[in-house]
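Lecture notes, unit on protein representations.

Consider one protein chain, 76 amino acids long.
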Amino acid sequence: MRAIITTTLATIATAAPVAAFAAGGRVDDSGIFVWVFLGFCALIVVSQIVPAVLLMFGMVKGVASVVKEEMAPAKK
């Protein structure tokens, strides 16, 4: 009984991905203009991320310096 279950599970595990990929059948007719448009969109996203990351690092650096000044021992 255990051998039958193991064989059945092995068959299902190997047949499932084949059936999933065979069901697609979609043809990609994207031309050069679609890829240029997507590249332009990616360029816009990257150009927005770079200043945001720099701003975050600046804010963290500013907060860290304020916390460092507050945590420093008082001078007499």
